[in-house]
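Onboarding guide, step 5: your first structure request.
Type a short instruction followed by the sequence, for example:

Predict the 3D structure of this protein.
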Amino acid sequence: MEYYYRARKIRKHAGDNVKIAMVISNIGIVLKAPWEYTKVIPYHEALGIFKELKNDIGIAACHTNLGSVYYFTQYYDSTLYIYTTGYRRI
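The system replies with structure tokens like these:
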């Protein structure tokens, strides 16, 4: 995790928003692995960045990751919503 936080800081300094969003998304994935789902949801600020950049692949990945977090935290309405209203341009 330390390296992800360092990478985020470096990418922010470089102004590389695509890489910032990727790092944030990866932090969320790592936190999801030890079942720390409630910590993962805020890290999907990456979704907002990918939307601003119109990065379809990043948006789809965030929707998938966020949907699984909602599922495992038993927020089934949110799961259904994010999976059925997901980004459809891909």
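Each response can be followed by summary notes, for example: The radius of gyration is 13 Å.
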